[in-house]
Design a protein that fits this description.
disordered N terminus, three-stranded mixed beta sheet, mainly alpha, 6% strand, three-stranded antiparallel beta sheet
Length: 665
């Protein structure tokens, strides 16, 4: 065989025409090829092999979807459409002629890129209903069509029910298909399981997979974080078994692989003037705080202020920075790894800020403790002394942990007090007073999403309207098509691109210019003739908050920003709702505390309130939990104070004492 023949063979097999859909650039590159193939097509002498049949089927899909050469005259366009019409009939005749005895000859050589189209046509043209399971499944296996792809065909699974069940149970590795079907979030294609596959079958298959030689850690983690469900066969024992195997794999991996050191360090400097400085040492973020600043802000109001502003728990508009938000998840984080259907979606940014705020809480409590200040006593002061004296609000009660309590006892007390404060706040908003007998009578698991607000239309949220979603994606996503113009003009996102570079309109690619046109249309950008600049800070601040916090605190906005929010509500881009916490903030609390919304969280409140906290790691584990509980309680206090200040006067811990920014100015 000559080298020329090899090239031709590659072209015939791997370079065949395929319609990828309107959203894929590969579709646009093949428009002329599709037109050429249809023009050469002869209905009287159609291809007889499966790949030829599937290629002309794909060519027809181009024309039917309107993908034809732009410079094609109208007469030739009509001729092309007419030439494509017989293809549907020819393809159907080829598939209708298939019989059990010739399946192997006809289908086994199907090209890999046509697997999806082959399954679609076998289903749509009734072949699965006519042909027997044994020869059909055998030839699809010889064609190297993965069992996971078979499960995307509802008609195949329905027609070959018991045979597909046997196929799944024959290999423990196929538990991955069952796990993905039930537990993975955002799957590319919907899958179907045979009706004969019982929950007991599924549990046994998953257990064999966990016990197998080399189970994939991603799937183990999905099971370990899964909710208990009779329909999936996942029970508490299977969850524990998966978690132990996953933890063992991680431990084994790091025993032989050093990995990359990441994390953060927190320290106090006796020479630093700035309240806080942040630096990066290789892959470790270093936070250094001024001892002079901390010593000068030991009054209780300033202590809480430091959490809000210095440690940046909520430095902007009373919106917490602690939750995970989609805009923080980089593009690759959405691709690699598997996310469960009930997972709280995190990423590297969330992990970094979670570690930072926890480390800062640990550092600050120890700093204050060395000066005889107990953070729980600061919280008691806020609710029982500050609110009555500054805002005239009475009735709140907060009981700090005993000074002699160990960390286990502190955890149980603090979780109980957190729920008590949330319940008291609900009663205060609903009744205008706090009746502790009513609070006791109605004591139940706190629904953080449902904690009331006294402020009507407190938060604005983006709707699913395609225009606002497109604008937010264009501006803030690292997957935006407006991040790279050339090697000299690029940025992490569109905002970064336009702010750090002088980008002339004419330098943009043709597909990028409509995005800029839209930003100009809504008044966010301007073409100066030399570059594209972002203007209209009030509008930008609204869009930035929607991206960074997934909400806008309406009553913190100035009149110009409110006008933009109102206009976007009228356009159907935004909607306003009221609650103490934003939706992202409530999700963060639920992720940490319970299993109301998510199955992959630490469930801290549930474990300690039900007496099933971890036993093996001792006091160190309880100490870690206590700091996490303290962080949540402080965050809740910041949110309560923000709302009470908004509804009362301009007094409160966030306004009566200076912030680091105030001091610097």
């Amino acid at each position: 065989m000559t080298a020329d023949t090899d090239v031709d063979d590659v072209d015939d097999v791997t370079m065949r025409l395929r319609f990828y859909g309107a959203g894929d650039f590969a579709t646009y590159w093949q428009i002329q090829k599709a037109a050429d193939l249809i023009q050469r097509f002869n209905p009287s002498a159609p291809p007889d092999d499966v790949n030829g049949i599937l290629e002309i089927h794909n060519a027809r899909l181009f024309v039917e979807a309107g993908f034809t050469p732009k410079d094609l005259p109208e007469a030739e366009h009509t001729s092309l459409t007419e030439a494509a019409r017989p293809i549907r009939r020819v393809v159907a005749q080829w598939f209708h002629a298939l019989k059990d005895e010739d399946l192997d000859d006809k289908l086994s050589d199907v090209d890999w890129q046509y697997h999806e189209h082959l399954l679609d046509l076998l289903a749509a043209l009734g072949v699965f209903g006519r042909c027997s399971a044994t020869p059909m499944l055998a030839v699809l296996d010889r064609a190297r069509i993965h069992p996971g792809d078979l499960l995307t065909s509802k008609r195949l699974v329905e027609n070959y029910d018991t045979q597909v069940r046997d196929l799944l149970l024959a290999n423990p590795d196929r538990a991955e298909l069952v796990i993905r079907h039930h537990l993975e979030d955002q799957v590319r294609n919907e899958t179907f399981l045979p009706a004969s596959l019982t929950p007991a079958d599924q549990r046994e298959l998953i257990q064999k997979y966990i016990d197998s030689d080399n189970p994939n850690g991603n799937y183990l983690k999905l099971v370990a974080n899964a909710p208990i469900d009779d329909k999936t066969g996942v029970d508490k024992r299977l969850i524990v078994k998966a978690k132990r195997r996953y933890d063992a794999q991680v431990k084994e991996f790091f025993a032989t692989n050093t990995g990359i050191t990441t994390g953060c360090s927190v320290s106090v400097s006796d020479t630093q003037i700035e309240p806080m400085m942040v630096s990066l040492d290789d892959t470790v973020i270093e936070y250094t705080f001024s001892e002079a600043w901390l010593e000068d802000t030991l009054d209780y109001a300033s202590v809480l202020n430091n959490f809000q502003f210095l440690f940046e728990f909520a430095p902007e508009d009373g919106l917490l920075t602690l939750p995970a938000v989609d805009s923080e998840r980089r593009g690759l984080e959405s691709v690699f790894g598997l996310n469960g259907t009930h997972d709280y979606l995190t990423g590297h940014v969330f992990t970094a800020k979670d570690l930072a705020t926890l480390s800062q809480t640990v550092m600050y409590r120890r700093f204050l403790e060395a000066r005889d200040i107990d953070l729980e006593e600061v919280l008691r002061w806020y609710f029982e002394e500050h609110l009555p004296s500054e805002l005239g609000i009475t009735g709140f009660a907060f009981t700090p942990s005993s000074s002699t309590a160990n960390y286990l006892e502190r955890c149980r007390n603090l979780f109980a007090e957190m729920e008590s404060i949330a319940t008291q706040y609900n009663l205060f908003i609903e009744d205008g007073e706090i009746d502790h007998d009513v609070a006791t009578a109605g004591a139940d698991l706190v629904r953080y999403r449902d904690i009331s607000s006294a402020i009507e239309g407190k938060y604005a949220y983006a709707t699913d309207h395609p225009e606002i979603q497109s604008i937010l994606h264009t501006l803030f996503s690292d997957q935006s098509h407006l991040t790279y113009v050339d090697e000299n003009l690029s940025g992490d996102n569109a905002v970064d691109l336009l702010v750090r570079n002088e980008v002339p309109y004419e330098a943009l690619h043709a597909f990028q210019q409509p995005m800029i046109d839209k930003l100009i249309e809504i008044g966010l950008a301007k073409n100066t003739g030399q570059r594209i600049v972002l203007t209209n800070f009030p509008l930008f601040s609204v869009l930035r908050s929607l991206s960074h916090h997934e909400a806008v605190a309406y009553h913190h906005l100035d009149h110009a920003a409110r006008a933009h929010v109102d206009a976007m509500i009228d356009a159907g881009w935004l909607v306003r709702r009221s609650s103490l916490l934003t939706e992202a903030e409530a999700a963060y609390f639920n992720y940490n505390l319970n299993s109301v919304d998510f199955s992959n969280g630490p469930k801290l409140r549930n474990k300690y309130q039900h007496g099933v906290q971890p036993k093996g790691e001792g006091e160190a584990q309880h100490q870690d939990t206590y700091y996490r509980a303290l962080r949540l309680m402080i965050a809740l206090t910041i949110k309560i104070n923000d709302e009470l200040v908004l509804t009362s006067t301009d007094h409160g811990i966030s306004t009566t004492d200076e912030t680091p920014a105030d001091r610097d100015n």
